[in-house]
Amino acid sequence: MGRSTRVHPGIGRRRRVAIVLLLIAVALLLAACSGNDPTNLSRVVDGANPQSSLDARGPDSATINDLYWLVFWIAAAIFFLVQGALLVAIFRFRQRKGKERAVKQVHGNMRLELVWTIIPVLVLAVIAVPTLSTLFDLRRAPDPGENALQVEVIGHQWWWEFNYPEYGFRTASELHIPVDRPVYLTMTSADVIHSFWVPPLNGKRDALPGRISNLTLQADEPGVYVGQCAEFCGLAHADMRIRVFAESEEDFAAWATAQAQPAVIPSEGPAAAGWETFSTVCVACHAVEGTQAQVRIAPDLTHVASRTSFAGATIDNTPENLRAWLHDPSSLKPMRPDLNKPSQGRILGMPNFHLTDQQLDDLVALLETFK
Amino acid sequence: MATLNPAVESATASHHGRKGVWSWMTTTDHKRIGLLYGVSSLLFFLVGGVEALLIRLQLAAADGTVLSADAYNQMFTMHATTMVFLVIMPAAAAFTNYLLPILLGARDVAFPRLNALSYWIYIFGGLFLTISFFVGGAPDGGWFGYAPLSTQVTEIVRMDYWALGVQILGLASLLSAINFITTVFTMRAPGMTLMRMPVFAWMATVVAFLLLFSLPIIAVGLFEVFLDRNLGTLFFDAAAGGTPLLWQHLFWLFGHPEVYILILPAMGIVSEVLPVFSRKPLFGRSFVIFSGIAIGFMGFGVWAHHMFVAGLGPVAEATFALTTMLIAVPTGVKIFNWIGTVWGGSVRLATPMLFSLGFIAMFVIGGLSGVTHSIVPSDTQQHDTYYIVAHFHYVLFGGAVFGLFGGIYYWWPKITGKLLNEGLGKLHFWLMLIGFNLTFAPMHILGLRGMPRRTYRYPKGLGFEFWNFIATVGSLTIAVSILIFLINAWRTKARGRVAGNDPWDGRTLEWSISSPPPEHNFDVVPVVHAEDDFWHRKYREDEEGRPVPIPGGGDPLVAGPDDPPIHLPSPSFYPILAAFGMFLTVLGLVYVPLGLVLAGVGVVTVVWGLFGWSMEPLTREEH
Fold first, then answer.
1. Chain A residues with CB inside 8 Å of B360's CB?
2. pLDDT in tens, B267-292
3. Which parts of chain B register pLDDT below 50?
C-alpha cells in the first residue's frame, strides 16, 4: 500500500493535471458542439435512437416489427444450429499435430441431403404465410370510414413538399399530422427518385417522377418523429430530412387553420425593406400566399417562421442560421445551383445572390414575420 | 525433364526465354493471362480498399468533414464499381483462366486470342474509369446508376464514363464467358465427363452462362442511359413518356444474376478446398453441382426484390418474395453439404482451409439476413439502409473475398512454385475475420436504427456515432490484414518454401503437374477415369472405404515417343491493339461531338486489330 503512494509522485501529479485539462477540453468541445451546431437533432427529438425502425410509434411500424422479430428469431435459431454444426465438425475432426487419419471416403447420403433440402422449404413456408398476409394488409388504402387525412407529397432535390389539399396550403419538409388517424400520402417527384421514410411510423416508399405511389402514416402518440430521404438523389441526398409532428386533433386543427391564412406583407420597418428584396429576388422560385409570389419550384414560405427547421429539415430555424443561409446557402448544405435549368425542371439548389448585409438583415426580419 | 517425346522438349524449348513486357502484351497463354487478371484485380482491390477507407473515415464521427458530399458520392460509386467490375469479377476470371483448362486436362482455352482480348479490354476499361478521377471527377450516381438521376446532369460527363466504362467491362466478361463455355464443352481431356468435372469448373460454367444471358440486358440499359444523356432519347424521362422504373428492371435483371456471378466462383473454390483439407470427397457432389445450376436459373427470377419499395404492387411483390425465399434453398443445400464434407474428415486447419471455413460461417450470416429481405414489409424498413450494406458485404466480402483468398493461398504454390508462409497467412485470416466483423456487423444495427446508405454525413442526435466509429476501426483492421498478405506474398517471392507438385495432397489434375506448370500444362494429356482423378491415382480404398496409398501413384505421367505433337497458340499483338481501339472509342464518345474524331480513330484501330487478327498466319508450324 505504502509502495503505491510513493512511486513518482511528481509524474502522478503531472498526469492528473493533464487528465483534468483533457476533461475540461472535452467538456468545452462538447459544449461548443451542442451549443452552436445547427444540425444537432438531440434538441428536436427525444431518445437515443429517434430514427430507429425498431422503436415503433405507429400501427404499421409495429406490424412490421412483429414480423421482423418473428423472422429474426427463426433465423437466429438456424444461425446457432448451422454455426454450431460447423464448429463441432471442425473441432471434433481436427487433425492433431500433423497426424493424418485415413478417414472413410463418404460421398454423400441421399436421404440426409433430401432432408436438409426439405426442411428449409418448410421453414420458408412458415414465414411466407405471415409475410404475404401482412404485405397485402399494409398495402391497403385506408377505408373511407377511417377519415384519413390526405396529404400530397412531392420530392424535390433536396427537400419535401407537403400539400394539404383539404386545407389549401403547403409546407416544406415538416409534416404535421393528427394522432390516431391514418394519413394517406399520395407521392410523386419533381425531378429524380426519392424515398419517403419515417422509420418509427412506417417503412419507406419511393416517390418517382411521372408516377403516383402511396403510403399510410399513423402515429399513436403526440411527438416529433424524424426520417429522411432513403433513395440516393444526388449531391445533398444526406441533407433531405423529414420532421413529422404528431398532434392532438385540436392542436392539429389549430395549426392547419393558421397555416391556411395568407401572409401579410409588413408595411414598415426592416421587414418592409426585406419585401423589396424578396419581391425582386426570391419570387423567382418561392411562393408566399396572399402576395404576387406564386412560383412553386422552391419551398412555400408563407409560414416559414412557424417551422422549426429549413434547408430540407436539416438546419434549426433561428434568425442567425437563416441569415447565414441567405448569405451563402451552399456553405451550409452542398448544392449545385450553377447547374439549375428551370426550363427543364432542374433545380439543384439555392444560388448565392451576394446580398448586402443590409439586405440580409431586412430579409431575415421579413421572414420572421411569416409565422 | 525425363521426357521421351521430342514434341514436349520442342514445346518447352520454343517457349523458353519468352520474357519481357512484350511477351506479356502478346501472350495467349491462359496461365499468363490468368496471372495478369490476378495482379490487376489485386491492384484494383487496393484502389477500392482506399476508397472504402476514405468512406469509413468520413463516417467515423457525426458531421464528418474528411470528404465533401461531392467527393463522397464519387467514392461510394467508385468503391462499388471497382469492387464489382474491377476486382471480384476479374479475380474470378483470374482463377478460371489459370485453372479451368488444367482442371479439365486441356492445354489452353478454346479461343486463346479472344482470351487476351478479354483481358486487355478489362484493363483498358479499368484505366478508363480511373482516369475519370483526374478529368473532372469520377462517376457519382451510384454503381446502380438509377435513372433519371444518372441522366439528369449531362453537362458533367462523369456518368458517361460510368455508362461506357461498365459497357466495355461487360463486353470483356461476355467474351470470356463465351470462351469458357466453349472450353468446357470442347476441350475436356478424354474421360473427363461433365459430371467428373471439378466443382470449381462447374461453377465457372454456371457463371459463364449467367454472364452470357445477363450482360446483354445491362448492355441495352447502358446504351439507353448513354443515348438519353447524349442524344436526348428520353427512355427514362417520365415527363416525355419514358419510365425510370424501366432502368431498374433492366439493371436488376442483370444485377441479381451478377450477385451469383460474384459468389459462385468462391463457392467453387471452397468446394475444392474443403475436400482436400478434410481428406474426404465433397459430400453430395451432384447436389452441390445441381444446386449451383439451380441458383443460376433462379437467379434470373428474383430481381424485383431490389424494388420492394418502388411501388410494383402487392401481387408482384408477393411473387418476388416467394422466389427470393426459394433461392435460399439451393444455397442452404450447399452449406449443409460443405459441413457434411468436413464432418468425419481429417481436418487440417491450413490457411486455405481457414478462409474456406470463414467463408461458410460468414456466408451463413449473409444468407440469413438475405432471407429477411424477402419479408417485404420488413424490407420496406431495411431497404437502402446500412442493414443492406451489412448483408451484401457478408455475402461479397465474407463470402466472395474470403473464398477468393482461400483460393489464393490454395493455388499460390501451384502458380508460383512456392508456399505462402502459414504463420502470416493465419494472422491475415484472423485479423481479416475480426476486422470484417467489426466493420460490418455493427451496420446491421445502424440500418435497423434508421441510417440510410449513400449519405455523406449524419447529424448528431440520431445515435449513429458509436457503431460507425467501431466500423471504422474494423475497416482499418482489415487494411492491416491486407498489408500482412502483401508482406507474405513479397517474402514468399524471396524465401518461400518450395512447394513441389502436390503440397496439399490434392485431388484434381492441377496437382499432377509441376509447380509452376509448363506452358503446355500436360506432357501427356491425361485420361480421366473418375471424379477427383488424381486422388484415385494416388489412393485406392480398403474394404471400409479408407484411402490406402498406391506407391508411385502420384508420379507425373511421362510422354512416350508415340504421343501426339503439342500445339500451342502463338502470341499475338492484335488483341491488345483491338482493345486499345475500344479504349479510344469510348474515350472519344464521352466528349461528343468533338470527341467523335477520337472515337473514329478508335473504331479504325479496332477494325485494324480484328482484321489483322483474322489474317494472322500461324507463325509456328505444328511439330
1. 86
2. 999 999 999 999 999 999 999 999 99
3. 1-3, 16, 621-623
Touching B: A residues 311-340, CB under 8 Å: 314, 334, 336, 339
In chain A, residues with a C-beta closer than 8 Å to the C-beta of B322 are 128, 132
Query: Which homologous superfamily is B30-518+524-557 in?
Result: Cytochrome c oxidase-like, subunit I domain (1.20.210.10)
CA distances from A268 to A9, A301, B421, B582 (A): 70, 20, 83, 68
pLDDT score recorded for residue B89: 97
What is the complex's ipTM, to 2 decimals? 0.93
Domain boundaries, chain B: 30-518+524-557
Distance from CA of A64 to the nearest CA of B (A): 5
CA-nearest residue to B540 within chain A is A105
Of B287, B348, B462, the CB nearest to A108: B287
pLDDT score of A29 = 59
B551-594: per-residue pLDDT in tens? Answer: 988 888 888 777 788 888 889 999 999 999 999 999 999 998 89
Q: What is the pLDDT of residues B368-389, one digit of tens each?
A: 999 999 999 999 999 999 999 9
Please state the pTM of the whole predicted model: 0.93
The pLDDT of residue A2 is 39
CB pairs under 8 A between A and B: 315
Residue pair B147/B225 in contact by the 8 Å Cβ criterion:
yes
